[in-house]
């Protein structure tokens, strides 16, 4: 066993930490209070700096213009970037584009790569991923009402989606739709690329989420697909393989999310320390002198370290044994880390008193926005049940109790 | 011991429940998504209905046009009203006006009553209460920087306040300011009535709280008092007695808040049941059939019942023995009930999955907005420490360990 | 609503508190470290004092020689007695005899009352209740393997029971056995009185529970019924009504248990205060000065008050509306109060450091022994599920979702 | 980063797992119910098998007859051994001997090594470590009343110790006593070897801990040192360096404890699975089919994995950077892992219902016995406070807030 981070990665992390501190944290109030479009010119300039530093797209392969980090190293990068809510965007590795890029690299035709992947990876356009439906439980992705029916050389798509994050301003969506209704449940749906200017692609609204309507990248769309017609050439990957590909996308995506959550925790803990050290609660007594806040800091530190090691271990296992072998790990880190983040943010808010619930700091935004972490990519409870079933099944097999 | 609610109160509660269901719940989406001013015409009409039903101002004395309920009965009314975020407003017993009315009744001069109390209790104007300061810990209210200096027949007020709730659109503020800087800490500040159109009363902004800027009654103001001059006749109660009066205001106010929180829990539990019974998670299986959600429902029910009885017991003790005897109870219900509400809302959000974090239901609004409950009126931790000190002091006294 | 305890009850409680302090707490070390038989002479003398004070058998009707308290008042007595683990025994209201007495009063024939009830209520003999079976889940009491077959004028009983508390030294057992195997599940079993000297009644062992083998009243027996033959006249209540009667026994029994648990919490909190006030952790600093222990004290106080009011409310509801109407309440108090006790005891142990895990105080005995509270009379989880089902069923009925 | 366990270690772990399953688990009921002396002949035979397998004393250096594993590898061994409460004893690496051996190796004179170390490491004798005092908080080890005064060539020791584990039957104690009362606090005490047959070494009792008096290795002694006289040659390490040496002993000792606790969790989880899979709760329904128990299994698995990685990471840091650099890590793993173990054992007990609280399984013994884990080696709360202080101090230093 060796817990050493390589020197190369260490160097990258130091550069990122400095960049986040100097270039991104000062933008936080603008991020919290101004519409996305107003931020874009500044963010574009920051992105240029990142490209100059040769840190653009740290996750993506070198041949596509990225840094090509492995999953463990990229996880560490995510953690460092997440101290700012703008970090991953400015470094060109934001969801949902990052996942879409991975799919396009693996399954895209040369034409699709040219038309969609290239500008996406360059940061010239944005995309979205359109899977979740309001009428169906996200916990059971094979339940899906949206259909894509072949007519002429086209697919005609009809359906209702929501939580299509970053649809506002995206150039195209990757849409999950049932193409093979008679196939076994897991082989019914396909992924289809739908440019957002296609007639019948209707962005109904940006869903208000915890008081935040949002705009641009920082939004969650509700989409009605109404006889939305695209060429069959827009099929992404084999027909009927939508779920298979979506699963592939989820594993590394959970590493990204979880390490991002740890990064958020790091920042929240820093802010808790700052508040504790600077808030005088009575003459000569700072918050930092009090045991209750000390206990919060220590418990946060322990849980954060525990979660972080668990996520890095999972990333390492995906790298070494593949995603399938790491399925159990992926479920475990998802619900454990989401829970840690919620507790750490809650303590940080409470430590700030009245200031903590205002939007004068980033904490309140995370407190409400990241509440979704326990819900998206499968609600925690679904992961717990599937973890337990696997453990029980394995025990039963090993002890002849099946 | 007798846990029976009187028949009269029972009748009132049934009327209110019906009114909330029929008249207020349908306004919820407007409340969540439209500015306060747009709501006001509708709310004014609803208020008229309440007056016709002779349920207006249930808390306030009959001679002032209210229903004159005792604290236990009024607590039950708060619980019933709180199933809608508009309940207390439409029934004329909303914070901060309710507390201001109590102070004006007890301490107002005949002129103050005529000018401020009468229209306030009638619902013709609104008011605010301006105590908390950004630079001082709310947990220690005797630390205060705002001053009111006598000049001629006036007070000249200078200071910085925030969390002056409902300042936007209020006709006057009751301001806490240091008038006697040389007096003992608890006798330094006074309450002064300041009409909001007084020069030097500057509403800097409605503070964005958990993503909600708000407007009108549903807002939290930040105020700069800059050489704000009012006649000394605007002094409310004896000079130097600001904290004494504020303390009197807090006890019953906590009953109102806590019973309101229980009402919120009741509604959240109803919504959780509705979601559980109507959400199919796989063919033939509803969420309601699953043990994890069943455990949430049962644990919520237990905690809510426990909190409710504790608050009612506290209200009864205030009624029978006075607020001072009930100080310990008041601290206990504050932190216990705030904690219960947070857990119940968290479970309700989670049970709704993606829908739970959207503003398509009222849950997300409560989840983020009521996070403040653990902070205002003294952060939970301060109450815990003072509860423990009293218990320890009493034990020491009884066992000669002082 | 009226939370006032009557003056009569208040007087009784003061007498009991004094008696517990003076007469019972000094016996605690003997209780913890010596076999039951060695304690009995002293306990018999204490019981005589209680009889002289006319406080013997506070729960049982006056015509049977008891005090005849109602359920709320008796609950308060249980709370007071439970500060000592010997309280209920010395006052003649200990489980399982108390429940057996209730059944015998309601269902006993004149002969059964003369032979079993009279000496039992007088404290001259002890009894036990033999229901739980090792091979069947206690959570589902209708699953039962023990049978009683009629032969001649006798029942011949065969079966395996455990957790037959206080069997060691008991004069008779009330045994649950299947008499009508073809009847519907809930009407299969009957209660039968079995003198413990009947051939075929075999006390296999006192089960070691959490390191405590125990003896006499303070023990849990495992019994093998091997062709154990008693006259049919020993049938208690109607044949096939075993579960019905057992259910009747459970409701008030839970009030007794829960109020006893609150009494244990009261004592644990006192001990925590004592330790905090007397333990110097560094020169001039006592444990009591530290926020972490202060938080434990305050949280314990809040949870204990919440649980206590909930139990008293439940007792009041049983008294006024009957046990059936209070089924939901009974389940709620069971799991809520058991949880509170576990947390309070855990904090009290921790506050005592090394001393807390030794048997030099009563805390460790409660910590391990009362762990069973979350298990007996239905594991907490079963109660949670049944509470939730009732809530969901009622919501569905009220909203047409059935 | 590399989470791979070496092949050599993997082989050792497999051998140990098999040995524990075949040779040690069958002894569990004897361990739980019979005195230590009766077990010893069997255990001696098992130890012989271990020596034959060349796995004896895995922690200790090869030149002293051990296997000489590093701290990470030895941690993994501890985990595997801890599935049986007899594991570490049978493999010759049990506390407190393991720690005493480390000290003797580092500080023992040739004579001390010959007389004490050699037979100790061979398993021919046992020892104990006598530091904790009943009248002083264990959280502040520099508070110590026991003294060792020089007279002639001897030390004369007077004092009162408890929690001197395994004193019963030990050949010698390493005693902490104040030798230099005028020195700075941390340099007052020394370690002195005291053969237990020295006059004045009085084992007052084996302290009953959570109902367990114990005997032999499995006991906790209370010792009175009454003018107990030993030669000054029995001084172990430099005079006044008792605390320094004790600190050195603690770091690796916490790794051993924590990995042992994880091993206990592993076994408890196995037992929970077994119970869930084999317990029918209604016809056709096993406990394993229920979500509540599934959630317990999943939450246990997550917490156990998190704790395990954190402990292994800490072990690795001690190996690579030394104990001083890893002080923060050592505190974090201590309270975090102790908490995980308590929760896992609690769930396992609950999952077993009535069986869980009996001593028919090992669970109840661990539930009560390992409650001490949150207390010994510094109560959790002291570790939390010191962790927080270090974090705050570092933040203050980095941000100029000191």
**Structural class by sheet pairing and helices of chain A:** alpha+beta
Largest interface: A-D, 51 and 51 residues
Number of helices of chain A: 13
First-residue to last-residue Cα separation of chain A: 35 Å
Q: Oligomeric state of the chains?
A: homotetramer
Main β sheet profile of chain A = 5 strands, antiparallel
| Helicity level of chain A | 40-55%
Q: In terms of per-residue confidence, which ranges of chain A show pLDDT below 50 for 5 or more consecutive residues?
A: none
Q: What sequence of helices (H) and strands (E) makes up the elements of chain A?
A: HHHHHHHEEEEEEEEEHEEHHHHH
Rg over C-alpha atoms of chain A, rounded to the nearest angstrom = 22 Å
Q: What is the count of β-strands of chain A?
A: 11
User: Average pLDDT across residues of chain A?
Assistant: 96
Strand content of chain A: 15-25%
Backbone shape of chain A: globular
Keywords (chains A, B, C, D): FAD, Flavoprotein, Oxidoreductase
Cofactor (chains A, B, C, D): FAD
Family (chains A, B, C, D): Belongs to the acyl-CoA dehydrogenase family.
GO biological process, one term (chains A, B, C, D): fatty acid beta-oxidation using acyl-CoA dehydrogenase
Overview of the structural elements:
Chains A, B, C, D: Homodimer. Chains A, B, C, D: Keywords: FAD, Flavoprotein, Oxidoreductase. Chains A, B, C, D: Belongs to the acyl-CoA dehydrogenase family. Chains A, B, C, D: Residues 128-216 form the Acyl-CoA oxidase/dehydrogenase middle domain. Chains A, B, C, D: Its cofactor is FAD. The structure is a homotetramer of 402-residue chains. Chain A is an alpha+beta fold and 402 residues long. Chain A is built from 13 helices and eleven strands. Chain A has helices at 7-24, 28-33, 36-52, 71-81, 87-90, 97-107, 110-121, 242-278, 291-321, 327-351, 354-357, 363-369, 380-398, and strands spanning 127-130, 147-151, 154-165, 172-178, 189-195, 201-206, 214-215, 218-231, 235-236, 280-282, 285-286. In chain A, the strands form three sheets. In chain A, strands 2, 3, 6, 7 and 8 form a five-stranded antiparallel beta sheet that branches. Chain A has a four-stranded mixed beta sheet with strand order 1-4-5-9, with helices on one face. The longest helix of chain A is centred in the middle third of the chain and has 37 residues, at 242-278. The first copy, chain A, starts with 6 loop residues before the first helix and ends with a helix. The model of chain A has no long low-confidence stretch (mean pLDDT 96). Chains A and D meet through helix 8, helix 9, helix 10 and helix 13 of A and helix 8, helix 9, helix 10 and helix 13 of D.
